[in-house]
Amino acid sequence: MRIFQFLVLIFFLSIYCYSKTFRISHVVSDNSPKGLAISFFKKHVEFNSKGKIKIEIYPNGVLFDDREALDALKRGIIQFAAPSFSKIADYVPEFQIYDMPYLFKSMDQIHRSYISDVSSYLKQKALVKGFVVLAFWDNGFKVITTRDKPILKPLDLKGLKIRTQGSFVINKTLELVGAKPVVKPFNVVIDLLKAGIIDGQQNTFSNIYTQGFYKYQNYMTLSRLGFLGYAFITSNKFWNSLNSKEKKLIMNALEEATAFEYRVAEEKNKDNFIRIKIHSNMKIIKMDSKMLKLWEEYFKNYYSIFYPVVGKKLIDEVLRLE
Ligand code: LMR
């Protein structure tokens, strides 16, 4: 019996000594589509590596906000991150293609872009900046919430302070209607809304629900003014330090996590929209086809402003995927 216990101890000690720990930081809750998919990824990596690889998850921005996380990735403090496309745009401006107002019409078109020349181009650009994009993940189309007035047409946003994640395309889109974009990290938005420092914000149903933004807002316009998605990334330096078996194991886990993420993003956004309606008195402003046409046409007139940042070629490529 003693020998058996000794062998068990040696077994666990050897796993402990020879195991590698990789950290992943993100800003959303564990119960969001991204949070759930990252937990899924962790479980699969740890199980398939028989404990040789451990994944430590730091959610809710407890370790870094997304911009700090990109820097931490480069410095090897964390090994994975899943920032929004808008934030990785600090390094690769063309990722703002997903922020373009009304360029993408459907989730099908978004998914087609993930496996098209659009994604190959973005991956290549990211690599030049030292990042390896391992997967493209969904959240959903964004809606606008406001405190004091309903937003029916684009110019109703005039003069309102709206929190954004801070890409050029997102900010310019709001400036085109006279709104004042307020760039702040995700995890302080709730306090800004509570204190009345901002008038509104735009995000997906899952983020609005899991962060409780709806508690401090009175109107929600189903504007779909841009898409929120994520690049699951690592640094080139870290990726090249892994052996081919480790890379394969991570990619296999990520493939399954990605399929899971697409399902859960769709389900959670549907479910969280219903929950917002149940738990709040927010007035919901739906977009009928006439309203949608008005919004689309307003912003499409300005597309050329975005050509120098996103590139006309990339925009045309996305239009071909409709
Ligand atoms: C935001 O800052 O609004 C989003 O990028 C948060 C997230 O990761 O969904």
Automatic annotation (TrEMBL):
GO cellular component, one term: outer membrane-bounded periplasmic space
GO biological process: transmembrane transport
NCBIfam families: dctP (TIGR00787), TRAP_S1 (NF037995)
UniProt similarity note: Belongs to the bacterial solute-binding protein 7 family.
Pfam families cross-referenced by the UniProt entry: DctP
Tagged with keyword Signal: yes
UniProt KW keywords: Signal, Transport
InterPro entries: DctP_fam, TRAP_DctP, TRAP_DctP_sf
Stated name of the protein: C4-dicarboxylate transporter, substrate-binding protein
